[in-house]
Automatic annotation (TrEMBL), chain A:
Gene3D superfamilies: 1.10.1740.10, Winged helix-like DNA-binding domain superfamily/Winged helix DNA-binding domain (1.10.10.10). It comes from the Bacteria. The keyword DNA-binding applies. Coiled coil: none annotated. Residues 21-87 form the RNA polymerase sigma-70 region domain. Residues 117-168 form the RNA polymerase sigma factor 70 region 4 type domain. This is RNA polymerase sigma factor. Keywords: DNA-binding, Sigma factor, Transcription, Transcription regulation. Pfam families: Sigma70_r2, Sigma70_r4_2.
From TrEMBL, chain B:
This is HEAT repeat domain-containing protein. The chain crosses the membrane at residues 88-109. The keyword Cell inner membrane does not apply. Residues 109-139 form a coiled coil. Keywords: Coiled coil, Membrane, Transmembrane, Transmembrane helix. The keyword Membrane applies. It holds the Pfam family HEAT_2. SUPFAM superfamilies: ARM repeat.
Length: 178, 258
């Protein structure tokens, strides 16, 4: 059964089917939000919120629309709503020193130096650039798919992703020097 | 080649997205330009790092929370869809029905009580009127009081009981005042459809000595078409003591009733 068929069933009142969508998507959405928010516990809450919205606002799912695009759009909205509500808690950049506190300690032990470096470099990117890299590089989404989620053109996405990679490289090797 | 253009080409190169021509240009640039090669190495490293980054695992709590949320949503969904078929609805409907029925019964009972109350008050009122009337008729001192008593009977008594009829008959037959006797007769005439009143009137014709009352009685009997008095009328026509005017009325009565 396709995601779209299942979502149609949920929309018409068969809520139980939502658990199938949860099985298929919760890890991807959690990874997206955890890397975006750089906070695992928060990411779990936000992921929960995404699925709550999917169920609550099931009637706003347009028939024929791609489910993956829709759920990522919902996830982006959930994140940005949270960000708006807690604007004062964050500056333009996530505090790199605090990252270790917010991501689980398990990662600190498991991750090698390169991965930690990557993580810290990601934290230095602007939200939009970090988001684009998570979608296209960490989650291996095609530019077309990301363009659908963000409601823009493939060419625009490509340019922005390239700039984000270039920026990440700068931060990465800058941090490596120190 | 400007840096951003070069970066973009190298990224596509690493991604394997370049066409043959472009790929050759990049390869030449990398061999020719050490800075470009360094850029290539560094870009490749970060891209590789992102590509192979480990996946984060959510805690088991996420699944538990989702299942709980889903169960709650499903719980909420049911009543919204079938509100009119829920037992709660029936219970409320029954309560409303009982309330309406109770109110109706209460209203009916209070109305019954009110009616009984009104009836009792009316009876009381009638009894008072009757007592007053009887008292007036019985007043030996004043003829005008007795006259008023007879008038009260005429105007206010709707249905005369035996007591009233007897009092009026007595007055009609025995009151010393002609006007009072006439008034009593007038009052009785109103109840002439009642059998005992009729009997009393017929009996009175036999014993009545007052010519005015006799004439009035004969008129009333004619109006009542009371044929039972023909014998009595015949007796009056031959009665030496009767006044000629009374005899004349008796003759007229005989003619009209026969």
């Amino acid at each position: 059964m396709t995601d779209e068929t299942i979502m149609e069933a949920v929309k018409s009142g068969d809520l139980q089917q939502a658990s199938m969508l949860f099985e298929r998507y919760h890890k991807r959405i959690f990874n997206f939000l955890a890397r975006l928010a750089m906070d695992r516990a928060l990411a779990e809450d936000l992921t929960q919120n995404v699925f709550l919205r999917i169920i609550k606002y099931r009637n706003s799912y347009r028939e024929g629309a791609r489910f993956q695009s829709w759920i990522y759009q919902v996830a982006r909205n959930v994140f940005s709503d949270h960000y708006q509500a807690h604007k004062n808690k964050y500056s333009d950049f996530v505090d790199v020193d605090k990252l270790r506190d917010n991501m689980a300690e398990a990662e600190d032990e498991q991750w090698d130096e390169k991965e930690k470096l990557l993580h810290r470099s990601m934290a230095l990117l602007a939200d939009e650039q970090r988001e684009l890299l998570i979608l296209t590089r960490f989650q291996h989404m095609k530019y077309e798919e990301v363009a659908q989620v963000m409601n823009t053109t493939v060419a625009n996405i490509k340019v922005k992703v390239h700039r984000a990679i270039a920026k990440l490289r700068e931060h990465y090797f800058e941090l490596e020097k120190n | 080649m400007e840096k951003e253009k070069l970066e973009s080409l190298i990224i596509d190169f690493i991604d394997g997205k370049l066409l043959e021509d472009e790929r050759k240009i990049v390869e030449q640039e990398l061999m020719r330009n050490p800075a470009a090669y360094k850029l290539y190495e560094e870009l490749k490293e970060v891209m590789q790092a992102m590509h192979t980054a480990s996946r984060l695992e959510p805690s088991a709590n996420l699944k538990l929370q989702f299942d709980k949320m889903l169960a709650e949503e499903m719980q909420q969904q049911k009543p919204a869809k079938t509100i009119f078929f829920q037992p709660v609805f029936y219970r409320v409907a029954a309560a409303v029905l009982l309330l309406v029925l109770g109110g109706g019964v209460g209203f009916w009972i209070s109305r019954q009580q009110q009616q009984a109350e009104e009836l009792r008050a009316m009876k009381e009122e009638m009894e008072k009127t009757k007592q007053m009337m009887m008292g007036m008729l019985d007043n030996q001192e004043s003829a005008s009081q007795r006259l008023m008593g007879a008038n009260v009977a005429y105007k206010t008594i709707v249905k005369a009981d035996d007591e009233i009829v007897n009092a009026l008959v007595n007055t009609m037959n025995e009151d010393p005042n002609t006007n009072v006797r006439m008034a009593a007769l007038e009052a009785l005439s109103k109840f002439h459809s009642q059998p005992h009143v009729r009997k009393a009137l017929i009996a009175s014709l036999r014993t009545q000595k007052d010519p005015l009352v006799q004439i009035a009685l004969i008129h009333l009997m004619i109006d009542m078409k009371e044929k039972g008095i023909t014998e009595e009328l015949k007796r009056i026509t031959t009665d030496d003591e009767a006044l000629p005017a009374v005899k004349d009325e008796a003759h007229v009565g005989l003619l009209k009733l026969s």
